Amino acid sequence: MSTDKQGIVAVVPAAGVGSRMKADRPKQYLTINAITILEHTVNKLLSHPQVSKVVVAVSEGDPYFPELSLSQHPDVVRVKGGNERADSVLSALNYIQESGLGEWVMVHDAARPCIQQGDIDKLIEAALSHPVGGILAAPVRDTMKRGVDGQIDHTVERANLWHALTPQMFRTLPLQQALTEALEQGVSITDEASAFEWKGASPALVAGRSDNFKVTQPEDLALAEFYLSQNKE
Ligand code: CTP
Ligand code: MG
Fold it and tell me: Where does the entry annotate site (Positions MEP for the nucleophilic attack) (predicted)?
């Protein structure tokens, strides 16, 4: 199965403040090897042959984005981000639907610059042949505990537990509808798949690389720099 000739539209939520990074600016604008994390991420998506456009959700009044050459790229579109990640994603989906940009979207966190083309290929193949769509995910490796008041309540069975990563790939219209409804009903939505889960659907889990992690805390920067240096594509 293949996508229509318009290709897949990538959505990059990049409107967060990065509070856990404790830096002087949102983490997506911190620099690794001379370019920002956001540029690393968007460049990876733009260089994939099946990705036709990248829609980036950016905070209103963000002074950093217009400074990037990326903001002038013909295949990059800026839309307004929202209060929560799901609001930022929905803003991009509304734009894509209004402008008829594409049937399939791939949502990828700005803060995951270490994504590799091979994982994007795997996700596309799996999502296109699944009735709902799919997400990259990594099996949990540590023993998992449920804590109560700082003490262990019990061990959670690790088999079948996965870390939900991005990209997450779905048809644009059903994702827009599921997200809109879930947000209207006040459901907490932390990734795209959870909007479908809430509707009773089961997206595919596609085993991806564990080095596609989300840059979150200060100590993550050195690790991202290492992986990016190892995997120049
Ligand atoms: N994001 C967004 N809009 C928001 C919140 C988050 O577009 N209102 C984006 C972030 O920019 C990031 C991705 O969603 O690329 C994942 O979110 P997270 O890692 O939590 O980033 P922040 O919210 O910026 O960080 P923190 O939670 O530490 O404040
Ligand atoms: Mg956050």
Answer: 158, 214
